[in-house]
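in:
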């Protein structure tokens, strides 16, 4: 009996010591932030901004490693297979949970293979139309699409991307069927919107902004449930003609499944402090990003709900990225 009690105490002590070491000794080497996009874009710039600040707070170098491709699945799979010690984390995007619904083969589970750390920011997306579309708000646009079923089309930055699915969600909720014209990136799609080759587009505000400011395309609404702090005078899609509509592309940190809670909490705590810095907030705003920040538990629930939502959109629309 005494031996059994001693064994139990030893196990408990081992667990406590392990947790204490995980928090007290973390990080013990450089941290790598894996970014699923190419260098130079808004997500990459955001990552490097955070890496520089986190380095100072965590006391170890924080390296950004770009692993673009396969709808962000290359980076996601890489981190899912990494050591669960908090030294390799993924700057995940909405596509983390959307990919399993879009692709026939995905080598990771967005829930089981990752430990959420924090939702970092939302990417402000807007709905814009070519000036030839006689609509000043979403309700008028829906009426125009219904009256011009063979003329109405929309551009996206690629099949299976957030701009594609946002548009399909709009189609389903509005009871319309705009033709999908996929492009390889935002720039060519916006150029065709400006020229009138397509007449509708959901896209990031940061990339659409120059054309909106030059009156080459008309901004109708933002896609979020509430008005954006970046565009307080612009109505949401929901309030200007399509009640219940919401689309919020997001970015957040996740670690490999099994990463100790003390390590996750340490990273999350320091990240929250970084997100409070005025210089960081200013940089995010210039990139068209709205800072959020939440707890690992809150982010976990958010991801699960997001997966369910977009899986339904994919099913209803028949969208596929293979």
């Amino acid at each position: 009996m005494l031996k059994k009690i001693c064994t139990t105490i030893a196990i408990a002590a081992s667990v406590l010591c392990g947790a204490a070491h995980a928090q007290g000794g973390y990080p013990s080497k450089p941290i790598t932030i894996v970014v699923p996009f190419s260098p130079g874009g808004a997500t990459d710039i955001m990552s490097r901004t955070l890496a520089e600040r986190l380095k100072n707070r965590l006391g170890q170098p924080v390296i950004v490693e770009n692993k673009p491709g396969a709808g962000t699945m290359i980076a996601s799979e890489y981190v899912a297979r990494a050591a669960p010690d908090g030294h390799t984390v993924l700057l995940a995007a909405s596509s983390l949970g959307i990919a399993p619904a879009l692709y026939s083969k995905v080598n990771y589970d967005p829930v089981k293979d990752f430990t959420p750390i924090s939702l970092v920011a939302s990417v402000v997306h807007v709905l814009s139309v070519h000036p030839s579309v006689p609509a000043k708000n979403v309700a008028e646009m829906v009426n125009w699409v219904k009256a011009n079923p063979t003329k109405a089309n929309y551009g996206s930055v690629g099949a299976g991307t957030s701009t594609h699915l946002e548009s399909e969600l709009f189609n389903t909720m509005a009871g319309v069927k705009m033709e999908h014209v996929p492009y390889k990136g935002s720039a060519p799609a916006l150029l065709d919107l400006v020229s009138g080759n397509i007449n509708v587009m959901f896209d990031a505000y940061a990339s659409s902004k120059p054309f909106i400011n030059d009156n080459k395309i008309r901004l109708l609404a933002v896609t979020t449930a509430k008005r954006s702090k970046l565009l307080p005078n612009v109505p949401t899609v929901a309030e200007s003609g399509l009640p219940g509509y919401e689309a919020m592309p997001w970015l957040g940190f996740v670690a490999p499944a099994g990463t100790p809670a003390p390590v996750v909490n340490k990273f999350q705590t320091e990240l929250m402090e970084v997100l409070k810095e005025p210089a960081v907030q200013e940089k995010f705003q210039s990139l068209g990003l709205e800072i959020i920040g939440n707890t690992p538990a809150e982010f976990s629930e958010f991801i699960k709900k997001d997966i369910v939502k977009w899986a339904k959109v994919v099913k209803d629309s028949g969208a596929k990225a293979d």
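note: Residues 2-24 form the longest helix (23 residues).
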